[in-house]
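COMPLEX REQUEST
Ligand: zinc ion
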Amino acid sequence: MASHDQEPQPDRRDRRVVEAAAAVLAAGLTATAAAAALRRALQPLRLAAAAIRAAVDLAARILPDRPPRATGRAQRQDRRDAHKYRAWYLVNAARRIHTAIKTRSRGETVADAVRKALRPESRYLRQHLAAQQNRRRTAIEVDRLAAIYGDRLGWYAVRDGSTTADCRHAHGRDFLLSKPPRIGLPGSVHSRCRCRPGRPWGTRLLT
Ligand SMILES: [Zn+2]
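STATUS: Structure written out below.
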C-alpha cells in the first residue's frame, strides 16, 4: 500500500477494525445494511456512541464511487486499497469526533460538540477524496505505461525547491509494478506529488 500523508496510519490495535470496516465498504451493501455493519465494525474502538454514529453518517455521505472497470494491475490494486484508505479515514474521523465530545466545555451538549467537530471534518473528507482521486489517476497512468514498457518502469520526479526527499531520491530509478516500492507509485507519494512513471532508465531498482 502506498504511503499516505493525509491521515495518520492506524496503530496496530486499530488495524483489525480498519480491515473489518474496509470489508463492509467493499461488500456493496445497501445504505441501511452498510450503516449497521459499519457501526458493528467500529465498535471495538470503544468510542462514544455519538462519535461512531457521526462517522457512520459521514460514510453514508460519501457517494459510492463507480470507477470505470479496472483493467490493469495498478488499477486493480488501487480499487482494493481504496476501501482500506476510506476505512482509515473513517476510524480517524470517529476518533477526532470522540475527542471533541470528551473535551467539550461544561454546558456544551454532546450534539453541539459533534456539530462543531464536523466542521473541520468536511475539510478532512475533501482531502481524503482528493487523495483517492490522485491515487486513481496514478494507477491509470502506470497501467497505461506498463502496457507499453512492461512491468519495469522509470521514475521521473519534477526537481525543484518543493520536491520532497522521497521523490528526489526516487528520480532516475526504476521500479516494478508487480512489486511497487515502499513509497508507493509515482504521482501518489504525497498529496502534491508531481512524479510520473515513464520509460525505464535501466538503473537500479527502487524497493
Ligand atoms: Zn513525487
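REMARKS: Residues 1-5 have pLDDT under 50 and may be disordered. Residues 12-146 form one domain.
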